[in-house]
Amino acid sequence: MGSIALKSTKYALTLLLILNFILPLIITLAVNQEAWFFGYKLGGIKASSWLLTNGIIGLVLAYSLLKDIKYSFLAVFLFFLVNFVNVMMIPLQGLTFSPFYSLGLILSLIGVVLKVRK
After folding, report:
1. Radius of gyration for the chain, computed over Cα atoms and rounded to the nearest angstrom
2. Which end of the chain is more exposed for a tag (fewer CB within 10 A), N or C?
3. For 91-108, what is each residue's pLDDT tens digit?
4. Pseudo-torsion of CA 7, 13, 18, 21, nearest 10°?
5. HSE-CB for 1 with a 13 A CA cutoff
């Protein structure tokens, strides 16, 4: 049972990390070159650089999950935690948290717990 849950969690996180790379690039290229970095609004090449760097780190973490590197779930948890905090610091009205990063945070925490118990 634990093995199936661990594999499911691993593949769900891999999908989220790949989407973390693809979706901001599509939005940046198609709509607007704008991003937030811990409360500071970035535009143009700075925004593109931040989004690309964040996405590449996510892809590296997805690869580490698929290769079963020892601390990959912990690294993914820290990645989603940093991005969750980053989104929480954006001074916008409305939704105060990101469901995407919240899901990644919860799934990676489940992965850490399952990996420790294994």
Report:
1. 15
2. N
3. 775 666 788 999 999 999
4. -160
5. 1
Q: Share the mean pLDDT of the chain.
A: 88
Compute the distance between CA of residue 52 and CA of residue 97 in angstroms, rounded to an integer.
22
C-alpha separations of 24 from 3, 47, 114 in Å? 32, 10, 30
The amino acid that residue 32 corresponds to is N
Query: At 113, which amino acid appears?
Result: V
Measure Cα distances from 80 to 10, 66, 94, 106, 117 in Å.
14, 17, 21, 9, 21
For residue 79, the one-letter residue type is F
CA distance 78 to 86: 12
Q: Is 69 helix (H, G, I), strand (E, B) or coil?
A: coil
Assigned token pair, 99: 């469901």
pTM across the whole model: 0.89
pLDDT tens, position by position, 7-56: 999 999 999 999 999 988 887 777 777 888 887 888 888 888 888 899 99
